[in-house]
Amino acid sequence: MARTPNLVIDAQKVVRLAVILRDELGETLPTDNSSLEVLTGFGQLLPHVEQSILGLAVGEKCVLELMPIEAFGERDEAKVVEFDRDDFPEGVAQGDSFDAEGDDGTSTPLSVLEVHDEYVLVDMNHPLAGKRVTVEFEVLGIRSAGKEELQVATIARQNRGLQPEGTLLPLNRLLGGRPRR
Strand ranges (DSSP E) for 29-170? Predict the structure, then answer.
């Protein structure tokens, strides 16, 4: 039986996916949600992932093994840097995570490695940088995007990564960070 074009994933479709993320050892990684809804064609998924789900229909599954370059990039030791202690909230502790916002609206994850009186040592690599991951998807739903959804996605693409004010540390303030001692 042939599929109808509006029931397969292509550009400008709102797609609901069940997602399982596994590390190199096959262990399931915690995620914010076990399902996610994205608008295709607007960079809301990793490029390799989006290309792999195109053409799938509701109920179909996809398992991808992603090398670091296809997923969260290679680990970069130059991204382990020191920032002034005063740039962080009171009570910051080892293991805390923050998002820093750049002038262009992009978000950079910060993982606190050490807290000292004068500085905080952070890792600006994505937590999965340098690691192979396996992503399992099941297509739960597909529909055409509405006009408003397309407008919002276009604006978001132009201002990639903007978050509500007050939730992010200003990256330009942190960029004075020093390389690791």
Answer: 35-39, 61-66, 80-84, 97-101, 107-115, 119-123, 133-144, 169-170
